[in-house]
Specification:
There is one protein chain. The chain is of the alpha/beta class and 461 residues long. The strands form three sheets. The chain has a seven-stranded mixed sheet, with helices on both faces. It has a four-stranded mixed sheet with strand order 1-2-3-13. Strand 14 and strand 15 form a beta hairpin. Helix 7 packs across helix 12, helix 10 packs parallel to helix 11 and helix 16 packs across helix 17. The radius of gyration is 23 Å and the shape is globular.
């Protein structure tokens, strides 16, 4: 009998994380983490915290880019996965209709407007987005897809074709044809295109992840009306904003929308098993899968695997039982309330914005001469570099993990687990103000680190 002891194997190579990644995976990521001092050896995750090999605890305000809505190692999700393993289910028979996908589909569709009544499962957010593009084109018989500038929808070929962040597209073009961008919030530009009646779908993030950009109060509801007028389907990308992140179960609820298709993923995983889903209207599904010989015209081999389905069901249970959507709204309001006075107090801090626990912190060029020298030094070397002057000491000094909201912008995005309490809110507010105050002391040790970042950026350039 073959023996394999994972713990023994891990113990044997303990501490070789970065060496292994440097040699066999992405060496550039290792360089980034070394440069900014994020190169920790995490060994455990508990709730809102990461624990390294020395037992130090780090408050995780990144949540795996929104994956860990329930925090890490939630016992309900763990038990559900153990139940699946212990049941020895006939996984992925393919030519069958397993119980768990049906149960999760039913549970998810209770969360959307009544006319959205079909569900398709995939492995990730980008796969879910890919499916919405195919469904929209087939259901309408039209070729074009519209998307917004500064958007992010994923990095596979189709999703990348509708991602407005240029840094991800560079070097991979030409991408899919008939995918065209409009300015986020520009209703005139949207109507100019959809009135041609050849646009299959308009895809949008209710709140853009790159930069945490919120729409004006009337943009999305009017965009939906314009699309309906000309027969264009609306596609809500809720991969990051969905499942309570913004203080509503879906972010589109803030604007009373009824999209035709909804893409979800990230938090649905419970932090364990990758899963994505598309929720859409019956008439769209019926057009795509309209004959028996088209029953498998679109699919995903691992999309309905029982571990992912169990994680999804457990996640929905926890969100409801622990009232995490409501907690997201409450803790988000506390964070924003605590952060807003700092905008008036510190000249470099420009704005706090967001909904629920999806919050952007934006910085601006200072007016005072000394600070302007430091700011100009950083921004000349690389636009958006100042943000790292916040994230790095926040991490190293206060053990709070955050990251910038995108390339070439001075915005930090915070995405805490939805389970956080006032304790974690206060820890963040205290740490953030301490670092912010330090940036207003020029010259100083923080700006010395800024000089190091500048040298690294100039060397790269």
């Amino acid at each position: 009998m073959t023996t394999f002891n994972l713990r023994a194997e891990m113990n044997q190579q303990r501490g070789e994380n970065y060496q292994l990644h440097r040699q066999y995976l992405n060496a550039q990521l290792v360089r980034v983490l070394n440069t900014i001092g994020y190169d920790r050896f995490y060994e455990k995750g508990e709730g809102a915290y990461l624990i390294d090999q020395n037992g130090d605890r780090y408050l995780d305000f990144l949540s795996g880019f929104g994956v860990f809505a329930l925090g890490r190692s939630h016992p309900v999700v763990k038990q559900a996965l153990q139940d699946v393993l212990d049941s020895d289910l006939p996984s992925l028979v393919q030519m069958d209709c397993a119980l768990l996908p049906g149960m999760l589909g039913k549970a998810l569709l209770k969360k959307v407007p009544p006319r959205i009544n079909r569900c398709f499962f995939a492995n990730s957010g980008t796969e879910a987005v890919e499916a919405t593009l195919k469904f929209a084109r087939y259901a309408t018989g039209r070729p074009r897809i519209l998307y917004c500038d500064h958007s992010y929808h994923g990095l596979t070929y189709g999703s990348l074709s509708i991602t407005g962040a240029s840094e991800f597209r560079e070097g991979f073009e030409p991408l899919l044809p008939a995918c065209e961008v409009i300015p986020f919030g520009d209703l005139d530009a949207l109507e100019k295109e959809v009135k041609k009646k050849n646009v299959a779908g308009f895809i949008f993030e209710p709140i853009q992840g790159k930069g945490v950009n919120l729409p004006s109060e009337d943009f999305l509801i009017n965009a939906q009306a314009i699309c309906r007028k000309y027969g264009t389907l609306t596609i809500a990308d809720e991969v990051q904003t969905g499942l309570g992140r913004t203080g509503k179960f879906f972010a589109f609820e803030h604007w009373n929308l009824e999209p035709d298709l909804v893409a979800i993923a990230k938090a649905l995983s419970g932090g364990y098993i990758p899963v994505g889903a598309v929720l859409c209207k019956e008439e769209i599904f019926a057009k795509v899968f309209h004959r028996m010989d088209r029953a498998l015209v679109h699919g995903s081999t691992f999309g309905k695997n029982p571990m992912a389905m169990a994680a999804g069901l457990a996640t929905l249970h926890v969100l409801e039982e622990e009232k995490l959507v409501e907690n997201s709204e409450k803790m988000g309001q506390l964070l924003i309330k605590g952060l807003k006075p700092l905008v008036e107090k510190y000249e470099i801090f420009a704005e706090v914005r967001g909904k629920g626990l999806m919050i952007g912190l934006e910085f601006r060029a200072p007016q005072s001469l000394k600070l302007k020298i430091g700011w100009t030094m950083l921004e000349t070397a690389q636009k958006g570099l100042f943000s790292q002057l916040i994230t790095v000491p926040l991490f190293q000094r206060h053990k709070i993990l955050t990251q910038v909201a995108g390339n070439n912008m001075n915005v930090i995005k915070i995405l805490p687990p939805l389970i956080i309490s006032e304790t974690e809110v206060n820890l963040f507010l205290k740490g953030f103000e301490d670092v912010l105050a330090d940036t207003h002391r020029y010259p100083g040790t923080l700006w010395d680190f800024g000089a190091t970042l500048t040298k690294q950026a100039l060397k790269r350039n």
